[in-house]
Amino acid sequence: MLLRAAIGAGLAVGALALTGCGGSSSPSAADQTVRRLAALYEIDQIERTWHQAASTHNLDLMMSIWAPGATMSYGGLTYTGKDEIRRLFAGSGAFNPKSHLISDTPAFKIRTTVNGDVGTLYFQCHYVDPKTRQVVLVVGADENVKQVHGTWLITSSTAATTTLR
Predict the structure, then answer these.
(1) Do residues 114 and 100 touch, judged by C-beta distance below 8 A?
(2) In this model, does residue 105 exceed pLDDT 90?
(3) pLDDT at 92
(4) What are the helix and strand counts (H, E) for the chain?
(5) pLDDT tens digits, residue range 129-149?
(6) What is the pLDDT of residue 24?
(7) What are phi and psi of 144, to 5 degrees?
(8) Secondary element (H or E) of residue 111
(9) 93: which residues sit within 8 A by CB, 6+ positions away?
(10) pLDDT score for 26
(11) Average pLDDT of 5-34?
């Protein structure tokens, strides 16, 4: 986790340093690469925040990664806006204070893309019972994300349970 933070900080500093250099009105290829890598890192932090929120039952933290007016489709229903999405999570087992499940994503099951101020994020939530060390539930989440006032947020999500093979 410390390494991820150091890499992210390095990318951000590099992006700032490059934007301050040169008098060209169009970004250099190096500047574009640094900005793209920084955006991919920031989008990846949505997955990290998601699992931290689910593992600690922190509903406010979970809601911090959703854009106003976002949608979430799960269980054949679509929830619109942060209030409806909050109610969905509040009623889920992951946010039940009596639940001791830990939410995790294997790194190889994360995919991110970025194109300007929009992108995508796919990950799987493996809910693990720490007593038995067994995965008890797997949910795949396919997100559309957007940079809103400098912060990457989820604009739409489609999630469903999946089976490990």
Answers:
(1) no
(2) no
(3) 84
(4) 4, 7
(5) 999 999 988 889 999 999 999
(6) 56
(7) -105, 135
(8) strand 111-115
(9) 99, 101, 137
(10) 77
(11) 62
Residue 97 scores a pLDDT above 50: yes
3-state DSSP call for residue 116? Answer: coil
Contacts with 162 (C-beta within 8 Å, 6 or more apart), sequence order = 124, 138, 139, 140
Banded model confidence at residue 125, pLDDT cuts 50, 70, 90: confident
Let me know the angle formed at the C-alpha of 90 by 128 and 159, rounded to the nearest 5 degrees: 60
**Closest by alpha carbon to 88, among 111, 69, 68, 63?**
63
Residue whose entry in the numeric block shows the structure tokens 């990457």 = 152
- How far apart are the C-alpha atoms of 47 and 122, rounded to whole Å? 9
What distances in angstroms separate CA 119 from CA 62, 76, 113, 135, one per listed residue? 19, 24, 5, 29
How far apart CA 153 and CA 92 sit, in angstroms, is 21
The backbone torsions φ and ψ at residue 143, rounded to the nearest 5 degrees and listed phi first, read: -115, 145
Q: What is the pTM of this model?
A: 0.80
State the chain's maximal CA–CA distance in angstroms.
Answer: 60
Q: How far is residue 74's CA from residue 16's CA, in Å, rounded to a whole number?
A: 39
With respect to CATH, is domain 2-161 assigned 3.30.70.990?
Answer: no
Going from N- to C-terminal start, the domains of the chain cover: 2-161
